[in-house]
Write a structure and sequence with these properties.
274 residues, mainly alpha, 0% strand, globular
């Protein structure tokens, strides 16, 4: 069995030993796009104006850059010599990583579709129906939405946890779409551990981001006077929160890469013994 504590220790050692290579990737390919996305997303409206389309395209482009950052960090763990080599390796695997991400999103949307269909059949269109004029919903539909949503959340969490090794398989084994199957195979028998790990990460990272937003927002709010300085304070707070989120994201990516190494070694040892 894989010892998650040992994987975390190896991750910590790696960050300490290779920080001069980790920091450029994290700064350029994670923090910068995350900070820009955090400041751009609130500006995107619902109408299809040229401005909103441009902001939407920019946000998607920045999201792709963050995928590149995850791949580069993974490549650094899996043997790339130097952050530039890791960035080149990540860039080489970026197209297939984007394809895999699109497949994952398509499956997610299809799986959630029954919920939206049930709402639509009840006359409720999310984002369009005013909150004060919601039509009545029959008990059967309400129960279906409740139960299906609960099932969707549980199954989604399990699948999300089991697919954490996809990027590592894309980089380390140069796989394509089969990286999805590879991740499921490698994480067999580890579901509860991975789900617990994902939940812990989500709770800690969200609490830290919320705390950072409250603290930075309060402090900067006290230092600002006037509309212009308030806008500057908002951008600064959002950027600082993105910095906190970047730290957690980078650690999660490095941990996942080392988890891939540990799990792969264990699986290969078992195969050799057989």
């Amino acid at each position: 069995m894989v010892n998650l504590e040992a994987v975390w220790d190896r991750t910590s050692e790696f960050v300490a030993e290779r920080r001069t290579e980790v920091i450029p990737i994290v700064a350029l390919l994670l923090f910068v796009p995350l900070a820009l996305m955090s400041n751009l997303m609130p500006l995107v409206g619902r109408d299809m104006s040229a401005r909103n389309v441009a902001l939407g395209i920019a946000s998607v482009a920045l999201a792709i850059v963050t995928i590149w950052g995850h791949l580069a960090l993974t490549a650094l763990v899996l043997g790339a010599r130097g952050w530039k080599a890791a960035a080149r390796t990540g860039a080489g695997r970026l197209p297939v990583a984007v394809l895999v991400s699109l497949i994952e999103m398509a499956v997610l949307v299809l799986a959630a579709m029954p919920i939206f269909v049930a709402f639509a059949m009840s006359g409720i269109v999310p984002g369009q129906t005013p909150a004060g004029s919601l039509p009545p919903m029959d008990v059967a539909t309400a129960m279906f939405i409740l139960l299906y949503s609960a099932l969707f959340a549980v199954v989604g969490l399990i699948v999300f946890a089991r697919l954490r090794l996809v990027n590592a398989a894309l980089v380390g084994e140069r796989r394509g779409v089969s990286a999805l199957i590879r991740s499921l195979a490698l994480t067999r028998g580890m579901t509860l551990k991975l789900v617990g790990l994902v939940l812990l990460y989500l709770i800690v990272s969200q609490v830290a981001a919320l705390a950072a937003k409250m603290v930075f927002g309060a402090v900067l709010g006290l230092l600002t006077l006037g509309a212009d300085t308030v806008a500057v304070a908002t951008v600064t707070t959002t950027t600082l929160v993105a910095l906190v989120q970047t730290g957690f994201t980078a650690l999660a990516t490095l941990f996942t890469a080392w988890l891939f190494v540990a799990v792969r070694d264990v699986r290969e040892t078992i195969v050799e013994l057989e």
